[in-house]
Structures are given as C-alpha cells and as structure tokens.
Amino acid sequence: MATTFGFVFADEMEYKPFNEYALAHGGKTIEDKTCNMVSLPVGDSLVVAIESGIGKVNAALAAAILIERYRVDYVLSAGLSGAISHLHKGDVVAGATYVECDFDLRAFGYPLGQKSDGTRIHTASDRLLEAALSIDGVQKGALGTGDFFLTEPATKDFYREEFGINAFDMETGSLATVCDKLGVPFLSVRKISDDADDNALDSYTELNNLAETALSEILLEIVQKLS
C-alpha cells in the first residue's frame, strides 16, 4: 500500500512553490472547501499538500484534515522562522522538539507551555528527523511556537531562557500536538528569515516574498529517502 505524506505550508508564498512544482510534474489540484490543496505522486508514495493559513488554530485544523480525511502516514511542515539562539538568517533547521510557548496555565501551578495532561515538549519522528539531517545544510534545533509574530527582544530572551529554543514560529507546536494526539509521525523544517527583533517584519517580508523553492525541495527529498 502506498505511503501518503501530508505537507503543511502556512501562507500563500510558502505554499506557492510546491503547488507550482506539483502541477508541473503530474500533480492535481484537490477541490476542498476548507483550504487550498494539491496532490503529487512521488515514486510509490503520494504527497497531499495544504495551505493551512497562519497561526496555531489554522495549523491544527490542517493537520487534522490531512490525518482524518486524507489518512496521511506522515505530516511534514515547512516555513519561515525567527532566530532565537545559535541560528542566523538563511539557516535551515529541522525541529527535534516543539513547544507552545504561549500556552499558559501558570495560574493553576503548571509550568509555562505545559498542558493539563502534563505534556510540554513534543518530539519529532526519529525517522523523519534522520532523513532531514542527512540533507546538506539542514541542522537540528528546538522550535517554539506562539500565536503572534515575535518582534520583542525581551520576549525573545525570556523564551530562550525558559525553553532553550533555537527558533520561533506560529504553527509547529500545534502541528506537533495534533500529530502526537492522533499518533502520526511529524517533522517541521524551517528557514530562518529574521532575528525576532525590531527589524523582524522587514526581514521576514523580504524573504517570504521571494517564494523560494528550497524548503519544498527539502520536503520532497525527505519523501524520496523514505519511499
């Protein structure tokens, strides 16, 4: 039975390169009222890609759609992130761990980021992570997530100390949460677009508008390695 991979891209410019590649290489647009979607055969496997929309709720919905409606065996995501520690603009990082930095039950005695079921840190699929790290230029890191675009140095410093994260985004923690709940292996690959500081918006916008193909190519290489 063919293996099915789900790809999640948050915004239009992250989704666009893969959509164009898929349609030029035998893929087909999926008519789904929820999100923009496309499918692509890759060897003996199938990729189903979705443009989720930005943020944790949109990402969680996209993961649930891929898993429950399209029965994917793996979920991979790709997008841009802000650097928190030990990374620089242009670096590519595969998330080994994921945490929702803005999940806050401290009033009830839980550590910041911890859910009521005791879960705080989610981990990537070993198999997906190994495949990603075998690709030139991809390094391992810890990813943090929040439902806001991070531009405040004080918040950046706090998250670095509290969670030990290397990069920050708006989707990966919720994707990892859904995949863990539903028992589906997950990995996110992120390219650093900015330093999560006062200049973050300009740096992010400049790179995002390029609609680069590099992240789509990395996800496809992971699929090929596992197929």
List the helices and strands and how they pair.
Layout: E1 4-9, H1 12-24, E2 28-30, E3 36-42, E4 45-51, H2 56-69, E5 74-83, E6 92-100, E7 122-123, H3 126-133, E8 138-145, H4 153-163, E9 167-169, H5 172-182, E10 186-194, H6 200-208, H7 214-226
Parallel strand pairs: 1-4, 1-5, 5-10, 6-8, 8-9
Antiparallel strand pairs: 2-3, 3-4, 5-9, 6-7, 6-10
Helix pairs in contact: 2-5, 3-7
Tell me what the structure shows.
A five-stranded mixed barrel has the order 5-9-8-6-10, surrounded by five helices. It is globular. 35% of the residues lie in helices and 28% in strands. The protein has seven helices and ten strands. The protein is an alpha/beta fold and 227 residues long. 46% of the residues are buried. The termini are close together. Helix 2 (56-69) packs parallel to helix 5 and helix 3 crosses helix 7 (214-226).
- Give the overall form: globular
Alpha-carbon distance between the two ends: 12 Å
List the total number of helices.
Answer: 7
What would CATH call the architecture? 3-Layer(aba) Sandwich
- Summarize the main sheet: 5 strands, mixed, barrel
Strand order, largest beta sheet: 5-9-8-6-10
Mean pLDDT: 96
CATH topology: Rossmann fold
Low-confidence stretches: none
Q: Name the beta content range.
A: 25-35%
What string, H for helix and E for strand, traces the elements in order? Answer: EHEEEHEEEHEHEHEHH
Q: Which structural class best describes the helix and strand composition?
A: alpha/beta
Annotated CATH homologous superfamily: Nucleoside phosphorylase domain
Q: Nearest-angstrom radius of gyration? A: 16 Å
Task: Work out the helicity level.
Answer: 25-40%
Number of DSSP strand runs = 10
CATH class: Alpha Beta
Number of domains as seen in the coordinates: 1
